[in-house]
Structure formats: structure tokens, C-alpha cells
Amino acid sequence: MSFRMGERASVGKLVFNVTDTEWKATVGESAKARIPEHRFLIVKLSVTNSGSQQAGVSLLNVYNAEGKAFRESDNGDGINNWMGLLRLVKPAETLQGDILFDVPLASYKLQITDGGEPDNEIIAYVDLPLNLETDPILAEPPAIPSLTQPSVEPPKK
User: Fold this and answer.
1) Which of 97, 105, 98, 157 is nearest to 131 (CA)?
2) For the chain, which terminal residue's Cβ has fewer other Cβ atoms within 10 angstroms, N or C?
3) Mean pLDDT to the nearest integer, 111-132
4) Are 33 and 137 in contact (CB under 8 A)?
């Protein structure tokens, strides 16, 4: 089962909603900035427990078009709204935050699960299209100067 970003994605008693993605060349501030092996992908999401018992949300994976899996980072340094490692959601409670991946620039599928036993686990996917507009480093370069403007030539020797 596959969902689009922004749709409510139900897997068992857990309901995921991926609201946004953001690409970053670094996370953190100046001296403590972290540099990725590839590029940081921040996924903003919420998880609601519609069941009657507390549920755990494990670290998640994303998959590229070739089917290669990338595990969510277990280090949230530099992420303001990091969801954390221990993610327990009480009945009728919603957990919101960001999760982090170090992946090459591409579109991905986020694998979501109900956290059940491996033999009975319910799995679905949320499409994460490549969106480069969120990283100022990846944005369009400044406008090229008009060719009609006079050019300044260096002085001749």
C-alpha cells in the first residue's frame, strides 16, 4: 500500500501523516554543524495512536528507486524538532516531529509500520518526491546580468 505525502496513512492502529520534506547540506550551527556523507533529508511527520494501548514507533527506512534501504539517523543533533529515539505514543495521542536521513538527492519511499511482530507487521509506504526548493543552497542561482548592460573592461597595461 502506498500513500502520497500529506495523506493520512494508516498502518494498524498507527496513523502517519508526512507533511513536508527538507534537504540540507548541513545541520546544526557553525562549529557544531554536522556534514552528511550525501545530503540530509529531514522528514516532518506526525504519528497518531488510534488503538487502546500504548504503541512504539521504531526507526524508519526510506527506499530509493532501485530498492536500496537507508536507515533513519539515530542522532538528532542540530534538528530543532527531532522526534527522538524512544517514541512511545499513548492511546489517542499524537507525536509530532522531524526525522533525519543521510541520503543521495533523489525521490524516496518512506516505509511505515504498525510496530507489530515481524511475522504480523503491517507495512505501507509514503512517497517522498524530490523537492529542491527547500534548501537555499540548491535554489536557482541569481539572475544572469543582462547582455545589454555595459561591461566594465579591466585597464590595459
Assistant:
1) 105
2) C
3) 88
4) no
Contact 105, 23 (CB under 8 A): yes
21-35, 74-88, 141-155: range with lowest mean pLDDT: 141-155
The sheet that has 94-103: what strands, in order across it? 8-11, 14-24, 39-49, 94-103
Instruction: Write the pLDDT tens digit of every residue in 61-84.
Output: 999 999 999 999 999 999 999 999
Question: Which residue, 78, 129, 124, is CA-closest to 105?
Answer: 129
Cell numbers representing residue 6 in the block: 500529506
Q: In what order do the strands lie in the sheet with 108-113?
A: 2-4, 123-128, 108-113, 61-63, 69-71
Burial of residue 51, with CB atoms counted within 10 A of its CB: 0-12 exposed, 13-18 middle, 19 or more buried: middle
Which residue is associated with the grid cell 507489530? 116
